[in-house]
Amino acid sequence: MTAPRGRLYLVPNTLDFGTGESGADLDDRLPLGVLRTAARLGHWVAENAKTTRAFLKRVDARCPLAAPLQQIAIVELPRPPKGRTEVAPDDFARLLAPVLVGHDLGLLSEAGLAALADPGARLVAAAHAAGLRVVALPGASSIALAIAASGLNGQSFAFIGYLPIDAAARSARIRELEAASRRHGQTQVMIETPYRNPALLAALVGELQPATQLSVSVGLTLASESTRSDSVARWRAAPSALPADVPAVFSFLAR
Amino acid sequence: MTAPRGRLYLVPNTLDFGTGESGADLDDRLPLGVLRTAARLGHWVAENAKTTRAFLKRVDARCPLAAPLQQIAIVELPRPPKGRTEVAPDDFARLLAPVLVGHDLGLLSEAGLAALADPGARLVAAAHAAGLRVVALPGASSIALAIAASGLNGQSFAFIGYLPIDAAARSARIRELEAASRRHGQTQVMIETPYRNPALLAALVGELQPATQLSVSVGLTLASESTRSDSVARWRAAPSALPADVPAVFSFLAR
Asked: For a designed S-S bond to A154, which of A62, B121, B179, B206 qualifies (C-beta 3.0 to 4.6 A apart)?
């Protein structure tokens, strides 16, 4: 007889990176059903155990945890060994051990959806390879919200991730993406480490054609959130300063 | 003196198309903060007024509406005139009239995020053109959840929308997307009208290379939800039947 197997739950996080703006209760940002599921899970995988404990404390304030926090197992996602970019697949398969003996396992992101623009995807792949059931709980992705808020083409879009840091390589990549956007009518979406937000904005405004529509969403779901969607010509005529400490999502559509 | 202007709120819907599975309370699926905002809005734009009223009744059961349902203004998004594919931009600008005189306006999707893979994007664009503030409230997108649940590359993906219906054109497009996926390491994501789900799955399984990883998510966030992510070789060896009445999201990554 084999033990019944558990499930891998992809648990969405808020988009505030746990900074917990004053008065921002967790249940303002996440569905109650998600908090209930999170409260009963005794096994977690996450990028960072400390921020996961902080998240679970916030959950506990709304839906009491099924077990004391000290008894909840939190394992961090493996990082590639020094000098390598890849983690061996076995390192992910090992994290699934609790599921094989019947426990449900939660995968938590630092912000937004786990495994989307986030290192958890390889754990999800390992779960599928092991024939396990994977359930993505409903939560917000800053990328999806930014596309919606941009007013750009939401029927065809590409998420590119990060652009090169080197200025010449980044300029070349922006021109290449603008050509692809024009050819396919496809919105191009990218993110950046917050302290490089101003540099990426300057590169986009400098490099893109005047008629291209450029949208920047900053601090989505926070009280300070804003989205500016404007032609590059107007971004040039009336520049905006971007904060260098808040996540932003950049998207553009060539005309 | 000019009147203070309202905001355009993009209000997420559940992913169940209002079918309201037994026991599935709205606050299991949407954050309480979203329900509170929805409950106070007196002006709405939506694809369908009837399903919007049904949504507001579900909201009311959890957060009492600020005004009686009959007093809430619900305007349907304009559809292109017969024989045309485009709606004139003025038809969207007109819908923003309440915002110009200080009312907040909600844009509601039939399912998931408004303006993402959804006709509301042009209203959002009109709001930006009028210099109005656009706020995307946190909610789930079936596309983002499906990518997360696929275990495929979540750092680079393209949402393609619908493929051609004609079999030869669809096959050619699948091969073209597979080549792009291989070239850029980019997950390709598409949707289909539910009754054509089985035909699209058959086309993908028939056309893609055996080593390409194909993921299909069906009925995301519903009790019946499932995601299968497997190589095309294994989809061929062990075929799955897809329901023809539940939304599905298809994604693949060439190896």
From this structure: B121
C-alpha–C-alpha distance, residues B93 and B96, integer Å: 5
B96 touches chain A (CB under 8 A): no
Q: Of the given ranges (A96-105, B76-85, B125-134), which has the lowest mean pLDDT? A: B76-85
Q: Are A229 and A204 in contact (CB under 8 A)?
A: no
> CB burial class (10 A; 0-12, 13-18, 19+) of residue A247?
buried
Provide DSSP, B91-117: HHHHHTHHHHTT--EEEE-SSSSTTSS
The complex's ipTM works out to 0.94
Report the half-sphere exposure of B147 (CA within 13 A, side-chain side).
31
Q: For residue A229, list its beta bridge partners.
A: A215
How would you label B109-148 residue by residue, b for 16+ Cβ within 10 Å and e otherwise? bbbbbbbbbbbbbbbbbbbbbeebbbbbbbbbbbbbbbbb
Backbone angles phi, psi at A77, to 5 degrees: -60, 140
Say if A142 is an interface residue toward chain B (CB within 8 Å): no
Nearest CB to B134: which of A118, A149, A154?
A149
Run of H or E including A44? strand A43-46
The DSSP code for B120 is T
Residue A212's φ and ψ, nearest 5 degrees, are -65, 140
Residue B163 reports pLDDT greater than 50 = yes
Measure CB to CB from residue A117 to each of B133, B143, B154 and give the nearest one.
B154
